[in-house]
Design a protein that fits this description.
The chain is mostly beta strands. The chain folds into two domains: 309 residues, no CATH class; 409 residues, Beta Barrel (Porin). The protein has ten helices and 47 strands. The strands form nine sheets. The protein has an 18-stranded antiparallel sheet that branches. Strands 10, 11, 12, 13, 16, 17, 18, 19, 20, 21, 22 and 23 form a twelve-stranded mixed sheet that branches. The longest helix has 13 residues. The radius of gyration is 31 Å and the shape is elongated. It starts with a helix and ends with a strand.
């Protein structure tokens, strides 16, 4: 089952529940045309000298005074509004109408009732911005470099004055010392994590190369309580990534949003000319924009574009529509500022983002604020040796050990009092009674392991995965398993792991032991990027032929529930030695040597090929077991792939990189008891294609061949998934060993429309459901040399049978297997449900022609 680490890690930190409190007169100011909040609106009592302005969310508040009964709302580009207030008014929401604006002798009057792109001055102006955007891209220069400082702060959000006088805040007074007021929202927040990063980015146009050198990294806060603490920083940087407004698609919240300055923006957004005004001494044209459909993944906001021949953006403000289909985000504000360099280039200097998140209304939310400053732009030639550094992201060896003087020199925005004392605050919060149990439970839930250490004495041995402790299968019946692994805190080079399992039905012990030596020093896991280790393993266990296709552990309790009985299994005894090496470029190689003994059990028999193929097998033709000695080589290339480390495996956090894989396995007869010579080759390509506001398509292509004459256990099995849990790139309705091939090609297509259809259906769109379509097909062939029905070769095995009938088939090379599915996800923001139907080979007995699959999936 897919584990939503990123969302859990952020949202489980919402620890406090508090009520809301209103005071004075407050409200929200919105645009009557776009219904979006308006910032920087003046709110005042005329002639009294008392007032204020609205914040980024359009919120304002103003004191009440006896006898003052008229409030004025005013801003350039909007019709001034004066409202009489009744005594006792607490909340006053206001809509302002855009005024008629003149720009270069063109009068524009926005109307809600009708919007057209034809003869629309705002659209014509945006076409000029699009035509000139290429000149604003830094990549047009032969070289460039700049320094970047970024601060990522996470806080408990919306702590009310009332809550500070009761509950946990009253009991632990030091919490009040940590609170501060968010300048973006004017809400009281409690910072719980802060991470600073200092880096340099360099670029060369020919041959093209771009590298980010991380010079300093400083982190304090709640993430330090987790052994996988770097997970929090990695997720935050991936979810709240940097934004280039000139890109067609903006990657944010692990999704793609249509940029207001994109080639497809004209058809996605409505644009309105608002005014000509001066922004920091530069005359700019003010445009507002809003998506045609507010639930699509786009922004509302304002562009301030230079009123000259460059059409460069001077300032941009963006937020999410109130009716957006994005989950868990109550508010998102982005403010970008650009500056002109002496050489004429307009470059980004400030990029600030504030996001308010909440899992549900009753639970205290989280605010994430990302502050990014760019400086020291230069365009002179750069030393070529820097481009020879390995990887797109280069980490300096001492990045975690920078001095206070260093941070004082690179920090472009000072730390607040609460940020600078975060380590002291974490020490104090750790002393709260019961806090360690909260962290213990959160670790077990997020990391799926139980630690045996403490913060002062980090765990040297972890117990888990938890979700494999109890499961079941046909042979074991109810199966109990206890697993564990050592960590880098015991030894940064040597790692040991394994499990013991016992089945109540077959009353046998199963076990696995692994010893790994990492050639590079590891903080916690041997699979930390870039991997470079060697592992020796020994395993004795019961296996299904389909287990190798599971993306998760075969003993995961969620995949133990099968759609059909899997009674054709084997006891497998494996001894292996594996070497794995990974380069920063995304290229990796795996070399493995394996000795395997396979003993069929349950309703699986290995019967030697003989002329009497349809009678009960004679004892002399029954094979007790088969032994193979193998060498395997896998080459993999995934440029730009990034990961988070979990205690079970690495998980990619960016699925934009293509993945190319080549695997060849060779078997050797007569080596260590090996009984067969064979050569098996498999290649695959995976790629994600983004379709802007129309979602994304994932494409997987596979092909392979078994070149030698071999018995059926060494043929190619389709990647079948017999559990009710859907997973990428597997077939849902192929039975265990239903097709046996020695040549195959397969394709998997998944089209995620991201709610594009549902967002246009009345009532349905309020549910925020999203649609997904899948199609999978398999072409297979079995040559005569490996077909026991066409060959008398005694080295072959007869196909598996059940109740005297064959359960495996030879595919028609002219008729592919096909299945298709229609799914709905984001049900209750959690559940993915999919209906799948088999389209071919419908006459096979014992098959499921259709079914329902599901998955727990939390996405933004």
């Amino acid at each position: 089952m897919k584990q939503p680490y990123s969302k859990l890690l952020i949202l489980l930190l919402a620890l406090f529940v508090t009520p809301q409190l209103s005071a004075q007169i407050r409200g929200v100011i919105t645009d009557s045309l776009t219904q979006e909040p308006l910032m920087y609106i003046s709110v005042f009592y005329e002639g009294k000298g008392v007032g204020g302005i609205s914040n980024a969310k359009g919120e304002y508040q103003i004191e009440t005074h006896r006898g003052w009964n008229e409030i004025t709302f005013s801003s350039i580009g909007y019709i001034t509004k004066v409202i009489k207030i009744a005594p006792g008014t607490k909340v006053l929401n206001v809509k302002l109408k855009p005024s008629d604006m003149m720009l270069d002798e063109v009068v524009v009057k926005p109307q809600k009732e009708k919007y057209t792109r034809k003869n629309n001055p705002a659209v014509d102006f945006m076409r000029q911005v699009l035509a000139h955007k290429k000149a604003q891209k830094l990549e047009e220069n032969e070289y460039y470099q700049y320094n970047k400082y970024q601060k990522m702060k996470m806080s408990i959000n919306d702590v009310t004055p009332e809550s500070l006088e009761k509950g946990i805040y009253k009991k632990f007074a030091f919490l009040k010392d940590q609170i501060e007021v968010s300048p973006e929202t004017n809400k009281i927040i409690l910072p719980i994590s802060v991470q600073e990063t200092s880096s340099k980015t360099i670029f060369r146009k020919s041959p093209e190369s771009k590298k980010t050198i991380i010079e300093g990294l400083n982190s304090n806060g709640i993430g330090e309580f987790f052994s996988t603490g770097e997970m929090l920083g990695t997720i935050l940087n991936d979810v709240f990534s940097d934004i280039n407004i000139y890109d067609d698609d903006i990657r944010l919240l692990q999704r793609r949003f249509v940029s207001p300055i994109s080639d497809g923006g004209i058809s996605f957004y409505k644009y309105y000319l608002m005014d000509t005004l001066v922004v920091d001494r530069d005359t700019c044209v003010h445009l507002s924009f809003v998506p045609q459909n507010s639930q699509d993944f786009g922004f509302t906001g304002h562009l301030y574009v230079l009123k000259d021949s460059t059409y460069a953006v001077k300032k941009a403000t963006m937020n999410l529509p109130k009716k957006t289909g994005v989950n868990f985000v109550d508010n998102l504000d982005i403010v970008q500022q650009y500056e002109q360099l002496p050489n004429g280039n307009w470059v980004l200097i400030d990029d600030d983002m504030t996001v308010d998140l909440s899992l549900m209304k009753a639970i205290q939310g989280i605010q994430v604020k990302r502050t990014t400053k760019y400086a020291d732009y230069a365009f002179a030639p750069i030393e070529q040796r820097l481009f020879r550094l390995k990887g797109d992201i280069v980490k300096e060896a001492d990045m975690l050990n920078k001095s206070d003087d260093y941070w004082a020199s690179v920090r472009q925005v000072p730390l607040t009092k609460t940020e600078s004392t975060m380590d002291v605050f974490m020490n104090r919060i750790e002393q709260i009674p019961g806090f360690k149990y909260v962290i213990f439970g959160a670790k077990a839930l997020i990391e799926n392991h139980i630690e045996t250490g403490t913060k002062e004495h980090p765990s040297k041995f972890d117990i888990g995965p938890i979700n494999t402790m109890i499961s079941s299968n046909y042979l074991d019946g109810t199966r109990f398993r206890l697993s564990g692994m050592t960590t880098g805190k015991l030894n940064p080079h040597w790692f040991f792991s394994g499990y013991g399992a016992y089945g109540l039905k077959d009353k046998k012990w199963k076990y696995e032991a692994n010893a790994t030596y990492s050639f590079r020093k590891c903080d916690y896991f041997p699979w930390e990027f870039p991997k470079h280790f060697i592992t020796a393993s020994y395993r004795y266990d019961v296996m299904s032929p389909m287990d190798k296709f599971l993306a998760t552990d075969k003993d995961n309790v969620f995949v133990a529930w099968k759609t059909s009985t899997v009674d054709q299994m084997s006891y497998v005894r494996d001894a292996s030695l594996k070497y794995e090496m990974e380069l920063p470029s995304g290229f990796s190689v795996v070399a493995a040597a394996r000795h395997r003994q396979d003993t069929p059990t349950g309703n699986l028999q290995y019967v030697r090929n003989n002329p009497d193929k349809y009678s009960a097998p004679k004892p002399e033709n029954i094979i007790k077991d088969m032994t193979t000695s193998e060498l395997e080589m896998t080459l993999r290339y995934a440029p730009g792939e990034t990961f988070i480390n979990t205690k079970q495996r690495r998980r990619p956090v960016s699925l934009d990189a293509p993945v190319f894989t080549f695997t060849h396995t060779a078997g050797f007869k007569g080596v260590l008891g090996g009984e067969y010579n064979f050569n098996l080759t498999d290649v695959s390509i995976w790629k994600r294609f983004w379709l802007s506001s129309w979602g994304k398509i994932d494409v997987t292509l596979n092909a392979g061949a078994q070149w030698n004459t071999v018995p059926f256990p060494l043929l190619i099995l389709p990647a079948a998934n017999l559990s009710y849990i859907t997973q990428r790139e597997t077939f849902n309705l192929i039975n265990n060993m239903e097709f046996l091939n020695d040549r195959y090609a397969s394709m998997s297509l998944t089209y995620d429309m991201n709610g594009k259809l549902f967002n246009r259906l009345p009532l349905i769109k309020k549910l925020k459901w999203r649609e997904v379509f899948r199609f999978r097909t398999l072409y297979g062939n079995l040559t005569e040399k490996n077909n026991p029905f066409k060959s008398d070769n005694p080295d072959l095995f007869l196909f598996p049978t059940r109740d005297g009938s064959y359960t495996s088939y030879v595919m028609d090379p002219k008729l592919p297997y096909m299945e298709a599915s229609v799914g709905v996800y984001n049900i209750f923001k959690l559940l993915h449900v999919e209906y799948v139907r088999r389209l071919t080979y419908l006459d096979h007995p014992g098959i499921n022609k259709h079914g329902v699959r599901f998955m727990i999936q939390m996405v933004f």
